[in-house]
Amino acid sequence: MLVHKQHPSVLKLLLVYRKGFLPYLIYLLDFKYLELKEFPNLNNLIYTNLKELYISNNYISIIPNLDNFVNLEILDLKENNIKILNKLPKNLIELSS
Q1: How far apart are CA 85 and CA 89, in angstroms?
Q2: How many other CB atoms sit within 10 Å of the CB of residue 3?
Q3: For labelling alongside 69, which of 20, 55, 92, 94 has CA 20 to 30 A away?
Q4: Is this model's pTM higher than 0.85 or not?
Q5: Are 67 and 88 in contact (CB under 8 A)?
């Protein structure tokens, strides 16, 4: 996973996960303004309760298949370089791109 050293919410997330908290309790992830060039690799974690995912204002061009995030309702992809957008969750209520 690409992590910007000065983005506190990502660092807190990684610290919490490493201390043994259950990752399925996470319902919101915020990756805004991290200068990411690739979509964060979320495959290693289980996000069954993830409802909101914010990845705006980066340099991402490919959005992977996200249909396994069955509870995802809000996906913010604004201000990226999206060229490929793969499958999205069926329960998605809000898509900003």
Answers
A1: 12
A2: 14
A3: 20
A4: no
A5: yes
* Rounded Cα gap, residues 75 and 54, in angstroms: 6
Among all chains, which residue has been given the structure tokens 């069954």? 48
pLDDT in tens, the chain (97 residues): 444 444 545 544 544 444 455 555 678 888 999 899 998 877 656 666 788 899 999 999 999 988 888 889 999 999 999 999 999 988 899 999 8
Q: How far is CA 40 from CA 55, 61, in A?
A: 9, 12
Residue 26: C-alpha distances to residues 35, 47, 50, 85 (Å): 23, 7, 6, 24
CA pair distance 18, 66, nearest whole angstrom: 24
